[in-house]
């Protein structure tokens, strides 16, 4: 129902979004995963008709939004990365204002406000000024405001940035429920792969303006089907040993931490023999060895050679 | 539209900082300036009526005779001698003083009664009079000596006031000082010209009568009101900047409402706030300081008319500032406006000092500021409630408003589309 076609945005000399083609089907929950500066927010601004693309197109139900953004705006609920609310108004007053912008009034307006407040679990504190809310509560109102006009598609730009685990879980659970129980189509942007992994059926991975991989979670992880991640923990830090292990032939990537080491190796490679041999030589004691199934983080690592938080 | 308006007004009412600037500050200034500058506006003088005793210890006839005698002893040519003697007789400083005190301007202010010294001092003690003016012995003689021969010293008057330096006696002192100065100065002129016929009571009291019947409270209530309505413009623009920075503006765009609705709501909200602001300032000032008469419907109708026109014009100014602020995406616009431009506009508009003494160019510029034009409209209505005299300033206020509105529409980012 929603498609972008070679969407591109150039700011002076940065190519923020580079030929991005995405698709959202009805009822789907799609993740847009990428590190800081990948171009996620810029892409979303263009999809939501707030920013004019340098080239490319955005279509809703087959119609381009460039000439007439109205259709898209009616269908879309946008949760921006920033808290887009009046701090000096209460949650209730904010929702009332945004509801009235969409032509709601009277009983219908009150009902809708009641519904979205219930949804984000803030009914009993709706009279407080937004500026007195915690970060997590502000994020929840930010979502509620995007829900006032019963959108078909919810687009969220890092809705969980900087909030406590409790609010985060509440928010993720709310989104999952909207998607599963109410058939809401969701585009979820984040650089937390756990969130995307938990929420989304399909994922686009963006880096430096480009989509570098797309598919269902399983499809993406299949990229790594020929390799595995071995996580080795030691009794203390052995920088020399870690360096040696990283340089063993066949190791594709090494992630060194304080007392542990993460190695990406081809499936079937016989690592353990040389591991224990080297450990013994350095007088090191291995406390734990763990072979992990790949995560989206690993996929990103494999594709870019960097971690998401780099 | 309703949604926008309610929100805009609600936000302003919640902003304590803006409320202080819009209401508390001007009111405070009205109170301070109104009280401290009471006495320089003639309207205030009505409150300063006083009863004064006049004691004349000077014998005018004797003074004149003595001066004429001394002319005799000068051995002047016959003709000059005659002229000088005549001049001494007609100059008559005492008569000048009485006619000053009896003049229309002063008699409304000071009730004079001649009496003897003992009785006067008794009355002053009993506070049934406020002051005593004494024309001392030799007044005529020294005045004439100064006048005709430029003899040093000149004439002097004495004043005894009940309460040292009250505003009341201050006024009397300044009137008398002015008179004595005029007397001694005029006399030196006539001496130079050798033409005593020109000696007359001249000058001296204009400063007091120039601003006919306006009190300091009236002056400052009006001038502060027209100045502080301008701050509504920057308050509204600051709000727009906040909406832009906090991205609520984006949310508003997403609602797909016509963007001009947003702009017009800002203008209307500003106009509404200005109306309330003017109402409160005029109302409170009248209530607390009896600034304006409460019983004249016609008077208040005129004030309301000017206020509404001013409010609409400031609404247009606010729209212009909102458009500019959104265009440059910075709160520098309202900041510069409230820190500098308003003071400048208030100055050329005559809110700080009356523009009578200013160069023509400044007065012209001032008359084309909404505040300056409104100021002259209010003043002219106060002094002479004649609707025809309002048409000039009101037309200028409207014209400026239309200009601001046009500029606002030209600058307003048309973000209705996908850009
Ligand atoms: N208005 C702008 N002008 C110039 N450059 C911009 C502008 N907006 C974004 N950029 C640049 O475009 C690139 C992509 O930015 P964008 O905000 O889309 O990334 P993001 O994936 O949302 O990052 P984050 O996770 O930090 O939110 C960045 O390099 C950024 O500096
Ligand atoms: Mg972003």
Descriptive overview:
The complex is a heterodimer of chains A (310) and B (419). Chain A is built from eleven helices and 15 strands. In chain A, the strands form three sheets. In chain A, strands 7-8-9-4-10-11 form a six-stranded mixed beta sheet, sandwiched between helices. Chain A folds into two domains: 2-221, P-loop containing nucleotide triphosphate hydrolases (Rossmann fold, 3-Layer(aba) Sandwich); 226-293, Alpha-Beta Plaits, CATH 3.30.70.100. With 310 residues, chain A is of the alpha/beta class. The mean pLDDT of chain A is 88. In chain B, helix 1 (2-14) crosses helix 15, helix 12 (216-228) packs antiparallel against helix 15 (259-289) and helix 13 (230-245) runs parallel beside helix 16. Residues 187-212 of chain B have low confidence and may be disordered. Chain B has a four-stranded mixed beta sheet with strand order 2-1-3-4, sandwiched between helices. At the A-B interface, helix 2 and helix 3 of A face helix 1 and helix 14 of B. The complex binds adenosine-5'-triphosphate and magnesium ion. The site of adenosine-5'-triphosphate has 14 residues of chain A, from strand 2 and helix 1.
Key traits:
heterodimer, A: 310 residues, alpha/beta, Rossmann fold, Alpha-Beta Plaits, 2 domains, six-stranded mixed sheet, 11 helices, 35% helix, elongated, B: 419 residues, mainly alpha, D-Maltodextrin-Binding Protein, domain 2, four-stranded mixed sheet, 4 strands, 70% helix, 5% strand, binds adenosine-5'-triphosphate, binds magnesium ion
